[in-house]
Write a structure and sequence with these properties.
Distance between the termini: 74 Å
Largest sheet: 6 strands, mixed
Order of helices and strands: EEEEEEEEE
Radius of gyration: 17 Å
Shape: globular
Length: 110
């Protein structure tokens, strides 16, 4: 008798990884707290994500805040900025040596 072939799931690669990001508001005053929340899929616990910011479309730079994922891949972090204008925030992490970048969320700061 022959046994049925077994299959195993392919390992997760950076190509499979995705970060989804949301902000709790679309506008804020300078120095207001802004809540950024999201999920890293597939679920990875204790992954460190860096916040990046772009103001008025001028390139993304690292923001001095990081977040760590929970066991279900979710994360949340508070940010505040004094930069007036259209502020875009995104999250960045490395998976298997490849950079994974979230969608950007826009908060108009006045």
């Amino acid at each position: 008798p022959t046994s049925a072939p077994t299959t195993t799931a392919a390992p997760t690669t950076a190509v499979d990884a995705e970060i989804t990001l949301t902000a709790d508001r679309a506008s804020a005053s300078t120095e207001d707290l802004i809540r950024l929340e999201g999920v890293l899929r597939p679920m990875v616990a204790d992954a460190e994500l860096r916040v990046q910011q772009s103001v008025d479309g001028i390139g993304f730079v690292d923001f001095p805040v990081t977040a760590t994922t929970r066991s279900d891949g979710s994360f949340g972090v508070w940010v505040r900025t004094g930069r007036v204008g259209s502020n875009e925030f995104r999250m960045v992490t490395d998976v298997d040596g490849t950079q994974v970048i979230s969608n950007a969320v826009v908060v108009q700061v006045s």
